[in-house]
UniProtKB/TrEMBL annotation:
The gene is kdpE. It holds the Pfam family Response_reg. One of its GO terms (biological process) is positive regulation of DNA-templated transcription. The modification 4-aspartylphosphate is found at D54. This is Stage 0 sporulation protein A homolog. Residues 5-118 form the Response regulatory domain. Residues 131-230 bind DNA. GO terms for cellular component: cytosol; protein-DNA complex. The keyword Nucleus does not apply. One of its GO terms (molecular function) is identical protein binding. Residues 131-230 form the OmpR/PhoB-type domain. Keywords: Cytoplasm, DNA-binding, Phosphoprotein, Transcription, Transcription regulation, Two-component regulatory system.
């Protein structure tokens, strides 16, 4: 089995040592950085499998690190931060983070988040091997380049909108519950935040649907979740 390499971006030495000791004990390879600029350089140089990222860095904010990395890489990013406000979580996730763990955290929860992320990576790899392009009526998703199109026009999607769209597309015809979507797009810490999901779904619909009030693609199942409909 492949040993995952993890980039730990944390300027607080005790927290960094806790994380790296945990990773070493569970047979993960890792590299570290105490600054945002250094983190961006490490991603470019070592191409890690997963990034564990603190937001409160001494040089640039962690959200800016996410934006820079996302300009060329889809590497999973798990934020580990003392910032617990919803706005902070939304900013990080909308910038392209995959999960958000609030300090203080337990070692068991950190390891669980890593296992979930590894499963997502395996699923993405399987999808890439089986089908490079998704087509549903005028909607087309090219997984190999991370772009979605409606007819001949490329959709300008945020990282979160793209993840939502891909999850729905890969489950076309199935009703996905709110909890399932939140767990698979944001992680278990967001499984009850249906309000944020509705906000992101509304912005996605505005870009995807000609008439968001009468959607052609994404059907709402009130009190349950959403379904991607097959369009002829």
């Amino acid at each position: 089995m492949k040993k995952f390499q993890i980039l730990v971006v944390e300027d607080d030495a005790p927290v960094r040592n806790l994380i790296t000791t945990t990773l070493r004990a569970h047979d993960y390879r890792f590299i570290t950085s105490g600054t945002g600029e250094g983190a961006v350089m490490e991603v470019a140089s070592h191409n890690p499998d997963i990034i564990l990222l603190d937001l409160g860095l001494p040089d640039i904010d962690g959200v800016e690190v996410i934006r820079r990395v996302r300009s060329w890489s889809n590497v999973p990013i798990i934020v580990i931060s003392a910032r617990a406000e919803d706005n902070d979580k939304i900013d990080a996730l909308d910038a392209g983070a995959d999960d958000y763990l609030t300090k203080p955290f337990s070692v068991e929860e950190l390891l669980a988040r890593l296992r979930v992320t590894q499963r997502r990576l395996a699923l993405i790899q399987n999808v890439s091997n089986e089908q490079a392009v998704y087509q549903n009526g005028p909607l087309r998703i090219d997984y190999s380049v991370g772009c979605a199109y409606l007819g001949d026009n490329e959709l300008s999607l945020t990282a979160m909108e793209y993840k939502l769209l891909c999850l729905l597309a890969r489950n076309t015809g199935k009703v996905l519950t709110h909890r399932f979507i939140l767990q698979n797009v944001w992680g278990s810490s967001w499984e009850n935040d249906i309000g944020s999901l509705r906000v992101f779904m509304a912005t996605l619909r505005k870009k995807l649907e000609k008439t968001p009030g009468a959607p052609q693609y994404i059907q709402t199942h009130i009190g349950v979740g959403y379904r991607m409909q097959k369009v002829e």
